[in-house]
Amino acid sequence: MHIGVFFGSGSVEHDISIITANLVINGLKSLNHSVTPVYITKQGKWMLGEELGDLKLFSDPAKKVEDQKKYSEYYLDMQESVGKMVFKKKGLMGKSVAIDLAFPAMHGTLGEDGTLQGLFEMFRLPYVGCGVAASAVAMDKALTKIVMQYAGVRTTKFKVLFKNDWEKDSELEKSKVRELVFPVFVKPVHLGSSIGIGKAKDEKELEQKIEVAFFYDHKIVVEEAVENLMDVTCCVIGNNETDTQASNLQESVYTQDMFNFEDKYITDGGSQTGKAQNKMVIPARLNSELTKKIQDTAKVVYKAVECTGIARVDFLVNTKTNEFFANEINPMPGTLYHHLWKASSVELPDLLTNLINFSQEQYKEKQSVNFTFESSVLKGLGGSKGKLGKLG
Description:
By secondary structure, the chain is an alpha+beta fold. It has three domains: 2-127, Rossmann fold; 157-224, 2-Layer Sandwich (Dna Ligase, domain 1); 229-363, D-amino Acid Aminotransferase, Chain A, domain 1. The chain is built from twelve helices and 16 strands. Strands 14-13-12-15-16 form a five-stranded antiparallel beta sheet. Strands 3-2-1-7 form a four-stranded mixed beta sheet, sandwiched between helices. Strands 8-11-9-10 form a four-stranded antiparallel beta sheet. β1, α1 (14-30) and β2 (34-40) form a beta-alpha-beta unit.
């Protein structure tokens, strides 16, 4: 089986995707899998090459990967790509690369949001992780909250604002937010890694935070903050109720008003990569009963959104009242949150193997469903002169 690891793309989380892909590629190779890195530039150019799995290629400012033609000399053979993706190198003697299974390592828009998953579905290619609908819902913070409410899962009170409405009448939009209790958080709905998120303590700060959020997205969510906050994460893997497994809980430690991008990826190597040990506590400092409730709720959210393979569910906990609120769901956690799985007795090789097995199970299940329907609706419509007959 030949695995293609897809990463990059035109997202503000482009660089984080490269880090995740590097981990996945090296992990798959250590399991003796045949791997082809498929890198998508910020401009949307697709590139193939074994060297693209080397993180140093992207960390060296002197090397511009997108300018190296040897990685862009492939094209997708549409005729051969059924049940697989076949890339052919240009030229009469160009070699072919046939991908049997896709492992998306995308974060954010144009990759983690169902767009790439839809392409895989069109080619009937097995792929790791959440499907089209689950990816799209999970990558929209507003839709996620709506699904959570429908599933009976408690989440913070929120309002959804659209950029067009804000530009037409900002006062009307602010009046909607006044129904919430300050302080509030303002978030672009389609981004991750805490990019574009801000906390507003009053209406004056609110307007500025909304403007920032709309710089990154056309749709934002404004939600009430949780007092005495502990930011808690739970990962879930599996395809259905019988085989889903929840990880230990991770408590994220931060000094600002929120767990920001620097905490996650920059300071001391970043907690999301598992390097900044001082930025996280595993297991979270919660009693066993509350821990179990949060793990069970993570599974409920996972099922409600119809996630498969892997996802990460974030919670907000009031440490004084022990109230907790499901906050967001991430359909492809950065670096697979391998550090949290390791702390949950699931090593990276086992995690990767499980994800591949889950993807193949999902593929077989889809193949068992009939998507075609034979009808006579087209018979006799053309006639000898190619004219359409009456349809009704």
